[in-house]
Design goal:
Low-confidence stretches: none
Structural class: alpha/beta
Shape: globular
CATH superfamily: SGNH hydrolase
Order of helices and strands: EHHEHHEHHEHEHEE
Helix content: 40-55%
CATH architecture: 3-Layer(aba) Sandwich
Largest sheet: 5 strands, parallel
Strand order of the largest sheet: 2-1-3-4-5
Number of helices: 8
CATH topology: Rossmann fold
Strand content: 5-15%
């Protein structure tokens, strides 16, 4: 191993990280942490993400508990519920909150590697009315622009989920066509480990396959 070894990992966010229709051991963040733990058996890890959480709830309820772990690695992925659960997508509110989230993480853990991600910009396996689909695609595209800009401001790595080929594979999704399936969580973990090793130099051993 010649790369960076993670000592403490805090996973923050919504159902994408918290998991739905999958057992706890199969969530992508848990799989990622398992790959870190094979490199560092003393890894401290907490998945603080909550199914249905908005960016406001992540800011109010998850950031400080995450910082209490004294992490050197944080994933924070949220915002989809600001669009999907709102009658009118609150992109402006999300912009303020993601800025506040990343600013607080930088203040509380200045040396930590912080990672966020874009959201899918289409849901071809969900049954949506054309006007609803158009509204959600437009809002999510704006959401992703905001996420990328905030990541740039705070030196945060942004995983390129939007446009990933796996989003065209129905096996990636649970029956609702929105949340990752077990196979989807495995794909996210595997692809994230590769991307994080390439861009941050983090060492993983994903199910016995050395990523370093």
């Amino acid at each position: 191993m010649s790369g960076r070894v993670v000592r403490a990992y805090a996973a923050l966010g919504d159902s994408f990280t918290a998991g739905r229709d999958s057992i706890d051991a199969e969530r992508w963040a848990d799989l990622l942490a398992a790959g870190m733990r094979r490199v560092n058996p003393e890894l401290r890890y907490e998945n603080l993400a909550v199914d249905g959480a908005t960016s406001a709830e992540v800011l109010a309820e998850q950031v400080e508990p995450g910082l209490a772990l004294e992490p050197d690695f944080v994933t924070v992925i949220c915002g989809a519920n600001d669009v999907l659960l709102a009658t009118r997508p609150d992109v402006e509110g999300y912009a303020e909150r993601i800025d506040a989230i990343l600013r607080r993480l930088r203040e509380g853990a200045p040396e930590a590697m912080v990672v966020t991600a874009t959201a899918p910009e289409g849901w071809q396996f969900m049954e949506l009315r054309p006007r609803t689909e158009k509204r959600l695609i437009e809002a999510t595209t704006q959401l992703n622009d905001v996420t990328r800009a905030a990541a740039d401001r705070y030196g945060v790595l942004c995983l390129p989920v939007a446009g990933h080929p796996a989003l065209r594979d129905p096996a990636t999704f649970s029956a609702d066509g929105l949340h990752p399936s077990t196979a989807g969580h495995q794909t996210v973990a595997r692809e994230s480990a590769r991307y994080l090793h390439e861009h941050l130099g983090i060492d993983f051993d994903m199910e016995g396959e050395d990523q370093a």
